[in-house]
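Worked example 2:
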Amino acid sequence: MKILRYFETEFVLWRGHDGVLRATDPYCRHLGAHLGHGGTVVGNDLECPFHHWRYDGSGAVVDIPYASILPRKVRQAGFLRPWPVAETNGMIYAWYHPNGAEPLWQPETSDEIMSGGWQPVERYEREIAVHIQEVTENGVDYPHFRFVHGTKSLPEPNWKIDGVRRISIAAAKMETPRGIVDGEIQSCSVGPGQSFVRFTGISEILLLNSLTPIERERTRVRFDFYRPPDADAKNERAAKAVARNIIQQLEQDSVIWENKRYQPKPVLCNGDGPILAYRKQYAQYYIGNDK
């Protein structure tokens, strides 16, 4: 059982004896004890350390050891708010909605990762003092690749929106010690926090980019890089070099993100990329005008 803090709040996550993950709000509805401090997983349920009220994954109380009759209210699903969770891509995803709505979409699964064939190359994690939207908006700010990251040419993207998905296929000139290599970057973002980026050219590599807001202006970034199962030693070295370059770009961006302010009405020119189209699509992830 783990205590987690994201979305400006805490919740508890546990795995039952059946192997299924469950998550709920952390405070017992009885007298307010924190289930994560001394609570116990019993079978598939979570037992409060104070009076041993026992909750299932739906947030219903299934046992009070000293009560012969459970009040009807506590037996209802949602008595303690449950957090929908899913497990795929070697990760655990939690759904958050400020009004408690059910998930509007599900995280996507990577066949490369779940098949077990593609092998991990590198993992990188850090927290950045920035709003989550700034991180993903950076991907459609094409000129910054030249001025922040020193690329000799800008990507030539084919960009489209499909509901909660943003899809981009960009031709790229990739610099190597032996000259320019023609490559391609395919990106598919699902919701505000899940992206799959596939690189070809210098090396074939898959990046699973995961973003989770901790506080309004603090985001946890996690990069998981994978290589194909048939990559030889040379290609694996190339994949690691690509991963290091992407991590370096994030570090370069972070200096700017942590010291900039959000411009709700930016003054843009024709070379700035589809920033306004991106913001229009991203607005669906807010309740009202919350940005």
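The radius of gyration is 22 Å. The CA atoms of residues 2 and 249 lie 32 Å apart.
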